[in-house]
Amino acid sequence: MKLNKFKSSEITPENIYRNRRQFLKEMGIVTGTAFVSQNIITSALSYTPETERKITPYKFATTYNNYYEFGTSKSDPHKNSKDFITKPWNIKIDGEVENEINLSVEEIKNTIPSEERIYRFRCVEGWSMVVPWLGFPLNKLLNKVKPTSKAKFVKFTSVYDPDQMKGQRFPILNWPYKEGLRIDEAMHPLTIMVTGLYGKELPNQNGAPLRLIVPWKYGFKSAKAIVNIKFVEKMPISSWMNASPNEYGFYSNVNPNVSHPRWSQATERVIGENIYSPRIKTLMFNGYGDEVAGLYDGMDLRKNF
Amino acid sequence: MIRIFKPTIFVLCLVPFIIIAYQILFNKLGAEPVKEVTHQTGEWTLRFILLSLAMTPLKNITKILVWIKYRRMLGLFAFFYGTLHLLTYIGLDYQFNLDPIIDDVFNKKYIFIGFAAWLLMMPLAVTSNQKMVLILKQNWKKIHRLSYLVGIFAVLHFIWLSKTIFFEPLIYLIILITLLSLRLNFIKFLFKKKTVT
Question: What value of ipTM does the predicted structure carry?
Answer without folding.
Answer: 0.84
